Amino acid sequence: MLGVLAATAVPASLAGCSGSGGTTGSSPSSSSPSSSAPSVSAPAAEAGSPSASRTPTTGPRPLFLGTYTSAEGGGAGVGVAVYDARSGRITGRGTIAGVGDPSYLAVHPDGRTLYTVNERPEGGVTAVRISDRKVLSTRSSGGEAPCHLSVHPGGRWLLSANYGTGGVAVHPIEPSGALGERTDLVVHGSPAPGPGQRGPHAHQVVTSPDGGHVLAVDLGTDTVYTYRLDERRGTLSEVSRARTRPGAGPRHLTFHPGGRYAYLANEVDDTVVVCAYDPDSGRLTPGGPRSTGTGSGTNYPAQLVVTPNGAYAYLANRGHDSLTRYAVEAGGARLRLVDTVPVGGEFPRQIALSPDGGLLFAALQRSGAVSVFRVDPDSGELRRAGEPFASPVAVCALPL
Questions:
Q1: Residue 355 DSSP class
Q2: 227-254 per-position pLDDT tens digit
Q3: Which of 154, 158, 377, 398 is most buried, judged by most C-beta within 10 A?
Q4: Mean pLDDT lowest for which of 58-67, 163-172, 226-235, 316-325?
Q5: Which residue, 2, 83, 177, 39, is CA-closest to 397?
Q6: Using CA atoms, how far apart are residues 110 and 112, in angstroms rounded to an integer?
Q7: How far apart are CA 177 and CA 273, in angstroms?
Q8: Structure pTM?
Q9: Between the CA of residue 152 and those of 20, 32, 182, 212, 289, what are the distances in Å?
């Protein structure tokens, strides 16, 4: 581990930011609001996942920014901004203070509530009402250094991944958007940790596109676990597990819009893997390692995103400080490396596409900034959209 939202619905594929690391873990690793919260007239979002359509958007759109409040030079809470959907220009709108180490963000499908991890030794998850920026609740994640969270598509359960202790937690979401007491905590006790790892390190937890399964990516055990969520009780039951090659260090899984394939970014061995996915059984089958296009230097892949039409995928590279473009072929079954482009700063911890897929945002942790790229709808080519926007210890960008 090295170290995103208002009154109408947000598409489930959009609901959050991704990543872990920074102030905790091992491996290569405020102010009052200046204005009211920006309104949203779009469908939930995990930072980094595009919606299924390219509906053009106009006017200012909301953007939420994650940081480490405990890091030197870190922010005072969740950054609030807006961006122009055509130019990509970002304008700051203040800070949601009183939220500690909000390194990853996700939004409820109804667009009214923002959820953040509190990536600290005594980990937590926090709910914030977007309309008035009021903190609704904070609950224990049941482990150390939670680095990722997502809202189940039904909107009733929040899922979070504890990096430090290698577990996945489930919290109920009340009608107000506030969080109830934890209903489950699953710790990855087996298999044994991979080479160079001392224990499990859950890095991500997401729901499959069909909504039938929950998948947890664990860097420490080189495993992706598949669970079924009991939507009445809020409990997880393991149904399958997929092993990567030893020492791969899987960090982040992104599904193709077709739902039959997913792409895995491996942090430790600097590779990506195409995985087949069976929606009926929840079984994930990893293929062979693929190049990140970064050469022989030190590089730690962070995250992949896929365009709404499923034609292109992009990988954030920390160390090489670039974005790799892949052409998606064979209905999602194959990634063909096209090129890499400089990301415009240091250590792109997380990337996200705007809902229409027209812009790509990169959170540059060590540069304290967010860079924006225009995405060519035909070729997938990335072009810089102005200068990076200053944001202290930027580790997550959630555009809506």
A1: T
A2: 999 999 999 999 999 999 999 999 999 9
A3: 398
A4: 58-67
A5: 83
A6: 6
A7: 36
A8: 0.90
A9: 20, 31, 15, 10, 30
